[in-house]
Design goal:
With 178 residues, the protein is mainly α. The chain is 65% helix and 0% strand.
Length: 178
């Protein structure tokens, strides 16, 4: 019975946030994701490169909506995406004919690598999966996927977060760098 008792939780739900914080988080997410989209449209249109990946949506939640979280800090944002992308590409290449094994190895290994390197960033798990499940365009990038789009897109989100999150006196980003 003790096992199931643990599933009740031990604390109350965190308090809600005010309208001003919601608006700043929305604006940050809009500008950050918009910046990645604009750079992709102007720099990568007509090329085989891409900059926008789905896991950046989850990163935006962290770096604009949960800016004090250790998971939202620069080291975690950029390092988590970069290392997880490397892991995902390696898993795809090694287990290409076994997609179930490839996705499981990619996600699990990305978690382990991020924990070992103090770069835990949950969207990194999705970045690893995208490397395996992505289409021809993603697979054609090979290990370049770790640089463009993973690290480069995360760097754009970081630059916007640094500039934007420090505008209001009530917000400060980052909490730490390394």
């Amino acid at each position: 019975m003790n096992y199931f008792a643990k599933m009740r939780g031990t604390t109350k739900s965190p308090p809600g946030v005010g309208l001003v914080e919601i608006v700043w988080s929305w604006l940050g997410g809009f500008i950050g994701i918009g910046a990645v989209a604009v750079v992709e449209a102007y720099m990568f249109e007509g090329t085989d490169l891409m900059l926008m990946i789905g896991s950046f949506g989850a990163s935006a939640v962290l770096v604009y909506g949960a800016i004090k979280s250790p998971l939202a800090q620069p080291r975690n944002l950029v390092g988590g995406h970069f290392l997880s992308a490397l892991v995902g590409v390696a898993a795809f290449k090694i287990f290409q004919g076994q997609p179930i094994l490839a996705v499981a190895v990619a996600a699990a290994t990305a978690i382990a690598v991020m924990l070992a390197t103090k770069t835990l960033h949950p969207p990194g798990g999705a970045t690893a999966l995208i490397a395996v499940l992505g289409g021809e365009k993603v697979h054609a990038l090979g290990f370049l996927y770790a640089v463009i789009p993973a690290a480069a897109g995360a760097a754009i989100l970081l630059i916007v977060a640094l500039l934007f999150n420090n505008i209001p006196k009530s917000r400060r980003y980052p909490e730490f760098w390394l």
